Amino acid sequence: MTELTPIDWAKRPIQKYAEFSGRASRAEYWWYTLAVIIAYIAVSIVESIIGMDKTVGPYGYLSVLLMLGTLVPSIAVGVRRLHDTNRSGWWVLLPIIPYGIGIALAGPAIMSGSMAGLGVAGIFFVIGLVCAIALIVFMVLAGTKGDNSYGADPYEGSSMASAA
Asked: Can you give the residue range of the structural domain that contains 112?
């Protein structure tokens, strides 16, 4: 395997659009994440210049298209990244559960004016934040060396093996 450039790493999740099996290296995950963030910033600037921002809630039409277009590959590369650390891809749902409960509790609390209900919802939002931080830590950790239960080492045979 030849040495991949950052752009090559960033393109891999798009090329593997909905592939949830296998493993993704840290380079693949983080270069893709950086590329998506840069694309979103660029799209937001363009939308702001042409006056299309805040057309769909706080977002513009192009931002929504970008989010929808990158949703599946983002989840897939996250699942493969977790596989690289020998964790189940289901961990990607970790922050969604407390956030969902918080939203479910916040809606009725806001409608009824219940500050206690908002406090309980706030606790679930904090738990969701802690879960999101834990998920980021999992994404930062080095992958398992060699094969694991999810597949072959993504760096194996690569000149990037020493960088991992």
From this structure: 94-144
